[in-house]
Amino acid sequence: MKEILIDQLSRDIVETIHEPLLVLDSDLKVILANRSFIDSFKVTRKETLGSFVYDLGNGQWDIPRLKELLEKVLPEKNPFDNYEVEHNFVSIGRRIMLLNARQIEQAVGKGQIILLAIEDITERRQLEIVLKESEKRYRRLFETANDGILLLEKSEGNIAQANPAVTSMLGYSASEFFGKKLKDVGFPDHMGTIQVLLQALEQNGIFHYNDTPIHKKTGEVLYCDIYMVDKADLIQCNIRDATRHRNLESQLRQAQKMEAVGSLTGGIAHDFNNILNVIMGYGTMVKDRLDPGSPIMKNMNEVLTAADRAAELIRKLLVFSRKRIVDVKSVNINKLIFDLQKLLVRIIRESIEFHLDLTNRPLTVLADAGEIEQVLINLATNARDAMPEGGRLTIGTGLSEMDEESVAAYGYGKPGRYVRITVADTGPGMDAETQKKIFDPFFTTKDVGKGTGLGLAVSYGIIKQHNGYINVYSEPGQGTIFKISLPLSQETATGDKKADAAAPVMGGNETVLVAEDETSLRKLIKTVLGSSGYSVILAKDGQDAVTKFMENRERISLVMLDMIMPKKNGKEVCEVVRKMDPRMKVLFASGYAMNNITKKEMTKDVFDFIHKPFRPKDLLIKVREILDRQGK
Question: From CA 471, how far away is CA 211, in angstroms rounded?
Answer without folding.
Answer: 37
